[in-house]
From TrEMBL:
Residues 15-32 have a biased composition (Low complexity). InterPro entries: 3'-5'_exonuclease_dom, Exo_C, HRDC-like_sf, HRDC_dom, HRDC_dom_sf, RNase_D-like, RNaseH-like_sf, RNaseH_sf. Residues 1-38 are annotated as: Disordered. This is Ribonuclease D. It comes from the Bacteria. It comes from Streptomyces thermoviolaceus subsp. thermoviolaceus.
């Protein structure tokens, strides 16, 4: 079993890594230095085919890893499409690309297919990048690297400050990136987000290697890069906030009908569904089952700002749900595969509940020793499935095979299988 070493103190990780200014990332007093401007200034936004061709050529001629980031308009627009893509590579500089004006970036993705992409929280950006033709074959996730290395704060700003000694201005992270033209302060912020990503990657690689965790990180990065796109979520309306209050099937039908009506309107208007009708209003209407528009208007979320025509469309959705036959009403819970919710284990299978409690304690202790979050050491769902239905022969090999079947990487199997086998034997699997 590999014995990873403890993470270094933050101060020992600070490195200039070629980042501006030339004297390093801390002042004479040791305080972090604000990073206010990209080293080559704010690049122009790429918004036509000719300019995009020049960027493709420049990045194809560049060398080394490529820093990649994307900005979305969450909370403002429908869906999670990219509204700005930022890249930086040695020899090419920084590029800011408008994917609304240039919706097909597959040529750029192709010339970078052999390069390692450096992203922060890669799983957040990969879906919207995939939509515009940018799919990495290799990547380095600086957020995930920070988790594995034991950093308590893994946001980009915190990582750049703790590791490199610079302060990034983060005031524009939640703005409406669909705005056109994009204001200069936003573009400066966007360019700075990729300014130090490669430097951060290099420093974290050294730290992971020092802790004996670099191979673990590489396995995690490969798993992200090779994962297929997730399938569409079944019954997405069930994720409506406040659904726990809705108990009856007829009320569930109202939630479904209002959610689907709202989704159609939001998609057509290209706005966030929450701006059309808040989740809280959907739940209010489901609980009240209003008889008419007047009763609907009295509910929270359907106040005086809602016009008569809008109220009528929402009431029509409620009426459709109320008119459904019993056979067409949604069931209380989604049909799920695998074990039931852990809160029900004590009643359904007390022995399994005891195994799960002991397994969780063992994983917690091991994660603390390895200085990383429990969910990065092993997926909680894999532990639940293992404890609900243990292998017939309980030893590290069979437990490891079961974990691998649930998606655990080889390094995770190596670390947790012996401890979980001990737990299962001790509790009497």
């Amino acid at each position: 079993m590999t014995d990873a070493r403890e993470p270094a103190a933050d101060s020992s990780l600070r490195t200039t890594g070629g980042a501006p200014p030339d004297d390093g990332g801390t002042s004479d007093t040791g305080a972090p230095i604000p990073l206010l401007e990209p080293r080559e200034g704010i690049p122009p936004v790429i918004a036509d085919a000719a300019a995009l061709d020049r960027v493709v050529a420049a990045f194809a001629a560049g060398s080394g890893p490529v820093a990649v980031d994307a900005e979305r308009a969450s909370g403002y627009r429908y869906g999670q499409r990219a509204y700005l893509v930022q890249l930086r590579r040695e020899g090419a500089g920084t590029a800011l690309i408008d994917p609304v004006a240039c919706p097909d970036l597959s040529a750029l993705g192709q010339v970078l297919s052999d390069a390692e992409w450096v992203l922060h929280a890669a799983t957040q950006d990969l879906p919207c990048l995939r939509e515009i033709g940018m799919v990495p074959t290799r990547l380095f996730d600086t957020e995930l690297a920070g988790r594995l290395a034991g950093f308590p704060r893994v946001g980009l700003g915190a990582m750049v400050e703790n590791v490199l000694g610079y302060v990034l201005e983060k005031g524009h992270s939640a703005v409406d990136w669909s705005t056109r033209p994009l204001p200069e302060p936003w573009l400066r912020y966007a360019a700075l987000d990729v300014e130090l990503l490669v430097d951060l990657r290099n420093a974290l690689e050294k730290e992971l290697d020092r802790q004996g965790k670099l191979e673990w990180a590489l396995q995690e990065f490969e798993a992200i890069a090779t994962a297929p796109p997730p399938p569409p979520r079944k019954d997405p309306w069930r994720r409506t906030s406040g659904m726990h209050k809705v108990r009856r099937r007829r009320q569930l039908a109202v939630v479904r009908e209002l959610w689907e009506t709202r989704d159609r309107i939001a998609r057509r208007r290209d706005v966030s569904p929450g701006k059309v009708l808040p989740d809280s209003a959907i739940v209010e209407a489901a609980l009240a089952l209003p008889a008419n528009v007047h009763a609907l208007a009295a509910l929270n979320g359907f106040g005086h700002r809602t016009g008569r025509r809008q109220l009528e469309q929402w009431q029509a959705a409620v009426d459709r749900a109320k008119a459904l036959p019993e056979s067409a009403l949604p069931q209380q819970g989604q049909q799920v595969t695998g074990p039931p919710p852990p809160r029900a284990w004590a009643d359904k299978d007390p022995a399994a509940a005891a195994r799960l409690a002991a397994a969780r304690a063992a994983v917690t202790a091991l994660a603390e020793r390895l200085a990383m979050p429990q969910e990065n050491l092993v997926a909680p769902d894999a532990v639940r499935r293992l404890c609900w239905e243990p292998p017939r022969v309980v030893d590290p090999e069979s437990v490891g095979a079961a974990l691998a079947g649930y998606g655990a990487r080889p390094w995770q199997v190596e670390q947790v299988a012996p401890a979980l086998a001990d737990v299962l034997r001790g509790v009497g699997a």
